[in-house]
Design goal:
seven-stranded mixed β-sheet, 2 domains, binds pyridoxal-5'-phosphate, three-stranded antiparallel β-sheet, Aspartate Aminotransferase, domain 1, globular, Aspartate Aminotransferase, domain 2, 9 helices, alpha/beta
Length: 364
Amino acid sequence: MATTTHRVFNFSAGPAVLPVTVLEEAQRDLVALPGVGMSVLEISHRSKTFEGILARTEQDLRTLGGVPANYQVLFLQGGASMQFSMVPLNLLTSGSTADYIVTGGWSQKAVKEAQRVGAVHIAGSTESENFSRIPRQDELKLTTGAAYVHFTTNNTLFGTEWAHEPSVGDLPLVADTSSDMFSRSIKVSKYGLIYAGAQKNLGPSGVTLVIIRQDLLARSSKSLHTMLNYAVHAENGSMYNTPPCFGIYLMGLVMKWALAQGGLEAIGRINERKASKLYAEIDRSGFYRGTAEKNSRSRMNITFRLPSEELENRFVKESTAAGLDGLKGHRSVGGMRASIYNAFPEEGVDALVSFMQEFESKNG
Ligand SMILES: *Cc1c(COP(=O)(O)O)cnc(C)c1O
């Protein structure tokens, strides 16, 4: 069934654009799943049907991400923000220190929660440069024997992204990958724990993906509140209580879509090409100015400014009217932000480039 509703190009930072084919399949099957006669919104999470959906979603996710067998995949709730608490509650054992690399507002929020739990060491920060870049390896000061090292792979507000993981030796690496999860190949074995709110690259809001190395589950204390305990969620296959059924179902459709794109290498190439087109336009004439340092630029959130705030306001208004929605930047950076996650169509990037050229020729 083709959707007849007109869709604009949606540059929202999150919740964000989803593949049209995914929305169409969900729409087609919303009232009654084929062969089931009930909506996915109505069935028991203990039913065979839902168990099948959960198992298939996990299997496709493992295939897509090459998740090794010694990692557990958990589907939780509370968003990435709940992980800011769960990570230290489970992994920051008493007497140890957790290292945090601070590259933006989300890293800062993660630090704030960890500090409620135990000792936190800031192993690196680019705050004094308004987070316009990712720290270099030689700037990082890691704690010997740290409980883990936390970093944010992509800084959604500031438009910066790690080109590759920081080197942390044998320390467990913990990553908030909310805004670039599965946007390119990922070597899961480099990580102790990966988490992501789904609503940028993986599905709708309401489900949070956690991938945790099995041995780290032993750190979860029995005295923790049940719902905050990774080991409990792992033992119960993400079904200790009612999981976010619809979110998991939709994430399953997105995983299937991502596999059909050719997997993460193919997706990575497409994302690289989409981002390059926008950065080329930003760099072309000097009218637009990228806010992130070139070697720290994000492929997901492209942030740029115009010569004046007045022009920026006009740009927002006129681009919205032209069917390019959600380009206003975050207030901590100002200017524009084009969020172009996996499902964002390349035609939308081309449309923005054309709009930028026209806008400059009228106002430059
Ligand atoms: C959006 C975002 C979050 C917050 O996610 P919630 O699911 O709303 O809690 C955290 N970290 C990063 C990097 C994000 O982009």
